[in-house]
Structure formats: C-alpha cells, structure tokens
Amino acid sequence: MNALQTRGLGKRYRRRWALSECDLEVPAGHVVGLVGPNGAGKSTLLNLAAGLIRPTAGTIEVLGGEPASGAQQLAKVGFVAQDTPTYAGFTVAEHLRLGARLNPGWDQALAEARIAELGLDPAQKAGQLSGGQRAQLALCLGVAKRPELLILDEPVASLDPLARRDFLQGLMSSVVEHELSVVLSSHLVSDVERVCDYLIVMVGSRIRVAGEIEDLLATHHRLVGPRREASRLPGDQEVIGQSHTDRQSTLIVRTDQPILDPAWTVSKLTLEDLVLAYLDANRRSAPTRPALEVQR
C-alpha cells in the first residue's frame, strides 16, 4: 500500500497555483523528507494529505483512502502543523485529555509514558514550556493517536540545534517502536539526512524529484572534464545542472547506466549537492535564489 499517492493533483488560490501537476507514489514504511524553498507547495501538499483543504484538480489518496473521508480514515493520520501548535492556556495533562476525547484509538499509557520520559510537568501550561518542549508535546499528541501515517509540517524550523536533535531523536524512537510512516517537511537538509530514507524535492509548485535517498544518490553524478555542451552527452544521461568555464565543464547528471567516457572525472553527490542541484536548475525562471537552509 502507498502511504501517499497523487494523480494530476493541483490546488489553486484564485489565479495562483500553489500546487500543480503533482504525480507521486510514496510506499508505506518510509520516513519521507519533503524539501524545497518557501512557496514551493510543501504545506499545500501536506494540508491536502491531511484533508484540511480540497484539491482543485486531480486526486489524492492516503493509505488507500480519500483524506478525511470518515472517522476510520481520520484515525489513520496524525498531523502536526507548522509552529507545533498547542493551546497556551491548557496544561500538559489537559492536552492529553483532549487527545483522548478526540481520538478513538488514543493510547493514554503511551502518552503518559512519553510525557514522563521527556520530564514534562503534567500540571504546567503549554504557554510556559520552551519551544522544544512544545514541539515534543505536539509530537507526543501525534504519536499517541496511534496513526499509521504521521505528517509533520516543519515542526522544528524555529528550534535551536539541541532542541531539534532531541525532537528528531524522539521521532525516530517512535518510528521504530510503532512502525510509523512519516512525511516530514523541512528547510534543513541536515535534518532530512539524519532521519529520512525517502526524498521529495519541490520547486515552483511542482515535484522535481522523488525516490529512495539511497537510489537517488546512486544515480546522480558530478562530471568534470574538458568543456562540452550538455547536448553532446548520451541520451541516457539527464542533465540536472551545468556550469562552464572557457576550458572546463561541470555537469550534474542522472543516469542508471555506467559513465564510460574517460574524459570525465566522475564523483558522487552528497544529499546537499543533490537537493541544491534541483533548486539551482530552477533559478533561471526565478528572480532570486530559493531560500533553503543547509545546516550542520
């Protein structure tokens, strides 16, 4: 079963398409990193998957069903929106009680154990928690729902590096223990590299590349050699990015076949290299460089 499947999916707000021509199949069982600049359509895709908005065009299925189509489908999906929303006036314990009332599959024992592990005071109000603690509380609520798919929309964007690390460690513990599928939207390539095994890159409201990270890294290469126009490469080598000097060419190519031309020095890409290659490929049609952060 696919965790997420779309066909011709699009969402328009007045004259602007926030998401367009989205064809995607993400098998269940993966931790998916969804990356791209602001305005690429990441949050729109996740809101469609959570059933918070309806598509303008095309179709979307989550775990084999239409998003938010009924109680059974709603129970399959956990969603943590941007800024890890919690209710400032509610205590930690009141958040857990609310979760129990709203979710028929709620696991109170799991929620309480997680809160104790995090060292959170059940009597403390969410408004008095640090940003990292609120993020952990939101993750606890999402996991205690016992979903099959957990959707996280930039949950750590505003956290400091230590809080981000703790959040991601908590996420991975939950993935292993509860066999969750996860879609994690992030501006931080380092976070995706740390926890994800599947990558989706979005630019300009469209999917630019998607696949298992191991496979993507194995099929993308950097070629450096004497100056040569990309049009002269074999047909099985898709050029993602290129730069040239008077005497030298540097190309980023995607191919399943070995590169046998001895004129090229061939090297592997890092995940950062791969993501930036697809973002750079879109620069010619954008007024400024996409704002994606690469942090270590």
From TrEMBL:
Matching CDD domains: ABC_DR_subfamily_A
Residue span, ABC transporter domain: 4-229
Gene3D superfamilies tied to this protein: P-loop containing nucleotide triphosphate hydrolases (3.40.50.300)
Superkingdom of source: Bacteria
Keywords: ATP-binding, Nucleotide-binding, Transport
GO molecular function, one term: ATP hydrolysis activity
Membrane spanning stretches: none
Protein name: ABC transporter ATP-binding protein
Higher taxonomy: Bacteria, Bacillati, Actinomycetota, Actinomycetes, Kineosporiales
